Amino acid sequence: MLTPDEIRSVPLFASLSDAGIDRLVRTSADIRLNAGEYAVHEGGERALYAVLSGKLEVVKRFDGVERTLGWRLPGTIFGEVPLAFATPFPGGYRAAEPSRVMRVEPHHYFAIASLAPEVAEKVGALARERIGGLQGIAMQPPKAQITVYGERWDPACSELRRFLSRNQIVHDWLSPETPDLTRSWTGSIPQAVECPVVRLADGSRLEKPPLRELAVHLGLQTRPTQEVYDTLIVGGGPAGLAAAVYGASEGLRTLVIEREAPGGQAGTSSRIENYLGFPNGVSGDELASRALQQARRLGAEILVMRGVESMNPATREVVLDGGERVRARSVILATGVSWRRLVIDGFERLIGKGIYYGAARSEAASTHGQDVYLIGAGNSAGQAALHFANHARQVTLLVRGGSLEKSMSRYLIEQIAGKANIAARLGCEVQAAHGEAHLEAIDIVDRKAGGVTRHECGGLFVFIGADADTGWLPPEVQRDKSGYVLTGDEVLKSGRWSHTREPFLLESSLPGVFACGDVRLSPIKRVAAAVGEGSMAIAFVHQYLARDGVEAAR
Known about the structure:
The protein is α/β, with parallel strands linked by helices. It has four domains: 4-139, Sandwich (Jelly Rolls), CATH 2.60.120.10; 146-217, Glutaredoxin; 228-338 and 467-547, FAD/NAD(P)-binding domain (3-Layer(bba) Sandwich), CATH 3.50.50; 347-464, 3-Layer(bba) Sandwich (FAD/NAD(P)-binding domain). The protein has 15 helices and 31 strands.
């Protein structure tokens, strides 16, 4: 419990009356931190803190990279910026050694300030000083972790840049068209046969690096650290990350295996406007980034650029690409789905050269001033159209059906209608794609009016139906004809359940193997539903471990 002398040791409170000190003694929290623990995280709710002992580090993430902004020693305060400007904490405060801090809730602080106006004056002056420092840091250009050199229409270069963007790696991209290239790229300019070339922060160069090898160089985890886990999650989309957060937070040894980058297809969404708790919407990569940080902070391991080749149904041992084996007491399938490939003349030859399946937010800038086309009528296509409209001259949605209402949310339809440079062509399909080095034009057939017309095209992005990626699963895990995993009642209906108890709601036909998110057979395909199912899956994992007598590792 705090004492009056401890509170008076903080210069801000030294001149308070006995009544003011007594109020702080009765209402302030006494927080004791071990090294590495946070008094408050970046984005935390506002309050006033004072350091009584120890040392706290001020940290903030800029473009995915954590930076140390300063230190707070005994007698100093923090939280003045959130209180003065009514904002969340712009940075996090982490104990560098065993520390002790007091926390004053906002309404108690304002009560003290009304009794002692000089306290509010000091806090306000300190807030103005520190917000100026934050603005100065924020205005500094982000330092690229690596530099990529390659041609715009090189599919390998496009894939590499997408990998970096999806994994929150700040990078510079140079091409033969970059102005003043010799000043930006030190050393000899790479030849076309060497590209793409990556220059790391230490100056070393990698030619055509495999993405997994590059991930290792960038410090991303690609190998598990243990042989056995309580739960192994296949897929790092919203469902998988939610399961990772809840699994790790509840003490389960948790491993996530992601073949590309955390976030899944939702990670490419430019704006998700109907997700609970984000009244102004949130981009898919921001949502994924926050979930990834949270999962890692709680202790989950996240492997990237690793796929699963097979699973032993008897032991739940999975074989990773490369032959590595990992055993788990339970498995959660959260692989999501993959975009369905189109069989159209010219497509395969031009994939990565102007034709793309899905779209990362970073690709919008390359469409500046171009006429681009999107195939699809779902929410992903609508979100991408709105994002591309901020860069492209004209965005056209090509819709095979007769309306958008059947597959797209109303709020997206209304926003699209309000954009002058977005058009939707109904009853249309792409018949062919043309171009030598890159996509130049597409042929569109109008089923309603008849006839085929050719249009110049600066980019074609495909957002059509998707298929479940479950071909690697053993036959013991029952799926429908499209590959979606049956769970709960659907398993019972299939007659493939042989256990003495009934399957849990998200349990597959193989006890101890669960499915959540888009890979599960369900008519609901929404980010919020995937997150909910991911958290529910952990609850069922706990019940499975308890009922089937499988002791969780400690």
